[in-house]
TrEMBL record, chain A:
One of its GO terms (biological process) is assembly of large subunit precursor of preribosome. It is found in: Nucleus, Nucleolus. This is 60S ribosome subunit biogenesis protein NIP7. Belongs to the NIP7 family. InterPro entries: NIP7_N, Nip7_N_euk, PUA, PUA-like_sf, PUA_sf, Ribosomal_synth_fac_NIP7, UPF0113_PUA. It comes from Aspergillus ellipticus CBS 707.79. CDD domains: Nip7_N_euk (cd21146), PUA_Nip7-like (cd21151). Interacts with pre-ribosome complex.
TrEMBL record, chain B:
One of its GO terms (biological process) is ribosomal large subunit biogenesis. Its main location: nucleus. Residues 1-13, 165-176 have a biased composition (Low complexity). Required for efficient assembly and nuclear export of the 60S ribosomal subunit. It comes from Aspergillus ellipticus CBS 707.79. GO terms for cellular component: nucleolus; preribosome, large subunit precursor. Belongs to the LOC1 family. It is found in: Nucleus, Nucleolus. This is 60S ribosomal subunit assembly/export protein loc1. InterPro entries: Loc1.
Length: 185, 187
């Protein structure tokens, strides 16, 4: 477990900023309690968002025995790119830049790994460009996953109900489908 | 120290004057005594002189100066590491550093999104303009068609009136329209 280098931090934040607005700075901002600060740590190839207190406690565990700590944000590939993971959803959802709310009838198709079609969209953030990162939510504002818009919000109004609006990247169903590989190092 | 220097100077001056003399003189002792001081003086002068420094400079060639082809060097082009840079990773842990990186990343992202939106708007405008143009063309075509239809209808009406009058007036007038029809069909 170690701190991120400058380059790694930049790559990681670039990916997070794809889905979030300027409020992302809240992640590294000091909290109300001055002792409770959150930090990013890399362990193996995985990046964790963890409270400083927990991080200090984790230093007492041998590196080989430490499986996970805090919230896993994603992992670095061998080529130096950053893959964001479903577990980061809770971290980025409150700071989302664009959101798509899906109706009850689109819930199951999405959670089973399908893309979001126009007919299932209940609401949509205005002025959303093409290929922008969006957080997918149900009508009760519960985050279900995230994806990338297929069309801009202006264009998608003209689409027919079966046309794809959002390409799925992750959904909550992955907790079951990817159970074996989600937390392996 | 002060008294010794003038003596040396005096000697050197005497030698300078009598440079040819030591060569001619045969005594060894006198030669040694005379020769020793001047080389020291010359050396001290030479070290401080620019000519010495120039020599050392000339010996040091940078790779660029040598003008070797880049692919012919020991270290490949991409592998050359910058000199004087700290080895290893530079970690970012302080909140200030993180915030600056975040600010840079955010600004980049904002710029990208802004440019995307501008592009999308421009494209939308172009599409709208094209659509309007196409609609205008269609409307024009339709109006033309309507005009033609109208004119044909009017002609028919006129012809109908004329035919009736002609039929009533003369029976030979029926041969002329047939001829006209033939010419149209062949053309």
């Amino acid at each position: 477990m170690r701190q991120l280098t400058e380059e790694e931090t930049k790559v990681c934040f670039q990916k997070l900023a794809h889905y979030t607005g300027s409020s992302l700075s809240q992640l590294v901002a000091p909290t109300e309690d001055p002792n409770e600060r959150f930090v990013f740590r890399i362990h193996g190839s995985r990046v964790y968002y963890v409270s400083e207190r927990n991080m200090r406690l984790a230093t007492s565990i041998p590196r080989d025995n430490l499986l996970s700590l805090g919230t896993c944000i994603g992992k670095f590939t061998k080529t130096g790119k950053f893959r964001i993971q479903l577990t980061a959803l809770d971290v980025i959802a409150p700071h989302a830049r664009y959101k798509v709310w899906i109706k009850q009838n689109g819930l199951m198709p999405y959670l089973y790994g399908g893309n979001v079609v126009k007919g299932h969209v209940g609401r949509w953030s205005e002025d959303c460009p093409e290929h922008a990162g969006v957080i997918v939510m149900d009508m009760n504002d519960i985050p279900l996953g995230f994806g990338v818009t297929a069309r801009s919000s202006a264009e998608s109004r003209k689409l027919d109900p079966t046309a794809i609006c959002v390409f799925r990247q992750t959904d909550l169903g992955e907790y079951l489908r990817e159970e074996d590989t989600l937390f392996t190092t | 120290m002060a008294p010794t220097k003038p003596s040396v100077k005096g000697k050197s001056s005497s030698k300078g004057d009598s440079k040819g003399k030591p060569l001619s003189s045969g005594t060894k002792v006198s030669k040694k005594n005379v020769k020793r001081p001047p080389p020291t003086e010359v050396k001290s002068k030479a070290r401080t002189e620019k000519s010495q420094l120039r020599k050392t400079k000339k010996r040091e060639y940078t790779e660029e100066e040598l003008g070797l082809p880049k692919l012919n060097q020991i270290t490949p082009v991409g592998v050359v590491k910058p000199k004087g840079k700290k080895k290893g990773k530079t970690f970012v842990d302080d909140a200030e550093g993180m915030r600056t990186i975040l600010a840079i990343v955010n600004a980049e992202k904002e710029g990208q999104i802004e440019s995307k939106m501008i592009k999308a708007r421009q494209l939308e405008e172009i599409r709208e303009a094209k659509r309007k143009e196409a609609e205008a063309r269609m409307a024009e075509k339709k109006s033309k068609l309507e005009d033609v239809k109208q004119s044909i209808r009017q002609k028919r009406k006129h012809k109908g009136d004329a035919g009736e009058s002609k039929a009533a007036a003369s029976s030979s007038g029926s041969s002329k329209p047939k001829g006209k029809k033939k010419s149209v069909s062949f053309a």
